[in-house]
UniProtKB/TrEMBL annotation:
Residues 149-198 form the RNA polymerase sigma factor 70 region 4 type domain. One of its GO terms (molecular function) is sigma factor activity. It comes from Labilithrix luteola. This is RNA polymerase sigma factor RpoE. Residues 44-114 form the RNA polymerase sigma-70 region domain. The lineage of its organism: Bacteria, Pseudomonadati, Myxococcota, Polyangia, Polyangiales. NCBIfam families: sigma70-ECF. Pfam families: Sigma70_r2, Sigma70_r4_2.
Length: 216
């Protein structure tokens, strides 16, 4: 699977400095809530990219991204006083904890969208695909095509398989840590991950076969 993902996401040139990293993060607005504390500010700085990236990779459409992002961090803002980070692997623990919130928010929004008949499919901008200032148009176009292919392939997975695939294959969590984020036992998580990998590979092979047929 790493080889397959490497083929899809292989950079067309040395990795650029991502423009988004030189700008401010998406703005969180607390609204009527109390002003964010220093601990919230630190948590936000450490996790906002993970949250934004995960929302898109889990299928949030671009039109809903900002609202979903705000909702995730409103919940974080309320619950953070009760969160006790471990002394070791604090960054990983924070991602696992915030992913549980993100997952609940996204699933609730998806159910509401289905009831209203609103479209819900991946078209969000992946921060990892934001072009660097020095990239050529050719490199930008190739990178965009690869990211679009990734999203198209992710769209072939059901939500449960997609979640664990994103966490393990794209975010680099272990199956055990992904199981914790998804409230699964490790055996179930590994079974689901294997099924997700198989489905993703089949989808990629179908894509490649279509490309080869068009080139004949």
């Amino acid at each position: 699977m790493p080889k397959l993902l490497g083929h899809i996401l292989a950079p067309a040139a040395p990795a650029p400095v991502i423009e988004a990293e030189r700008t401010a993060s998406p703005r969180f607005t607390a609204g009527d809530a109390a002003l964010p504390s220093a601990s919230f500010d630190a948590f936000y700085r450490d996790t906002w990219r993970f949250v934004w990236r995960s929302l898109g990779r889990l299928g949030a459409p671009q039109w809903a991204m900002e609202d979903l992002f705000q909702e995730v961090f409103l919940v974080v803002h309320r619950r953070l006083p009760d969160y006790e980070p471990p002394s070791e692997n604090a960054d990983l623990a924070a991602r696992v904890w915030v992913f549980r919130i993100l997952r609940f928010v996204l699933r609730s929004h998806r159910r509401g969208s289905h009831r209203k008949g609103a479209p819900f499919h991946s078209d969000a901008i992946d921060l990892d695909a934001v072009p660097g200032a020095t990239e050529t148009p050719h490199v930008i176009a190739e990178r965009s095509e690869r990211v679009q292919l990734l999203y198209d392939l992710l769209d072939t997975l059901d939500s449960e398989k997609r979640e664990i695939f994103v966490l393990v294959e794209l975010e680099g969590l272990t199956a055990r840590d992904a199981a914790s984020a998804l409230a699964l036992n490790e055996r179930t998580a590994r079974t689901r991950l294997n099924a997700a990998r198989a489905d993703f590979k089949k989808a990629f092979e179908r894509h490649r076969a279509r490309d080869e047929w068009r080139l004949k």
